[in-house]
């Protein structure tokens, strides 16, 4: 079998572990050949290929990023599906393994509709891919965010400041909620729960008056004020529809400072959450997903995505998860509120 492999969307820690697993298992166990496409779906549309052998993946396990490169290019939105199909046929690709987030996997489902064998592997630091308990990159991103909050605690207390920490999470607040709990933040503002700045102000005033002279407020980039409340704003978007880093955190910090008079600073973690050495959890998850993708092809499965369900890796239909968002559940949001 001749297997194609891509990584699409934003980079994250653990991608190289998944690539390595696919190559080692496909080549070592079954004698398949693996062809990588550079820069995600864009590389498929343009026929930008690189052979992947055991030599190519030597030493990549602890490395962040992706050795194949990546790009935010969705062929179903850029009239590129014909070019993708032409390349796959020209390169005699029997099946394509796509490692990516919602956009990449949505594109994979569109390619699968053309009769091409496709296996999806979920990765996103936002952890918002539906159908799986965890996606590659999430654990490392939460670790980075938690470490930053830990460091900000000491400087916040030393200077009697309110520290606003903006983390990624446009549609879902998985990083904000988990890092907020792990880092002991006083407030977490997530997309799932629109906030009321009057209540934020009241909480901070009471806290600083009663028992503390500093606070940590974690803000997901996609957090938004509740309709009809005193603070309203529209999030600024970039050229690809992404939220401009620092927009939400900056506005929240400015509003807190102007309302309370407290010395308030903002820290935008941005792409720091994506990069660096992957935690063991992401190396293991990437390795398990890569192995499962190859096994799925061996058993004749296609048009499915690998998914972590409890302790098991299972296969779910791409059509059921493409275009869907996994939100933070109410019980986990309740933990944040209880620990305020």
UniProtKB/TrEMBL annotation:
InterPro entries: ATP_PFK, ATP_PFK_prok-type, Phosphofructokinase_CS, Phosphofructokinase_dom, Phosphofructokinase_III, PKF_sf. The keyword Flavoprotein does not apply. Its EC number is 2.7.1.11. Its main location: cytoplasm. Pfam families: PFK. Its cofactor is Mg(2+). Keywords: ATP-binding, Cytoplasm, Glycolysis, Kinase, Magnesium, Metal-binding, Nucleotide-binding, Transferase. It comes from the Bacteria. It catalyses: beta-D-fructose 6-phosphate + ATP = beta-D-fructose 1,6-bisphosphate + ADP + H(+). HAMAP family: Phosphofructokinase_III. Homodimer or homotetramer. This is ATP-dependent 6-phosphofructokinase. It comes from Georgenia yuyongxinii. The lineage of its organism: Bacteria, Bacillati, Actinomycetota, Actinomycetes, Micrococcales.
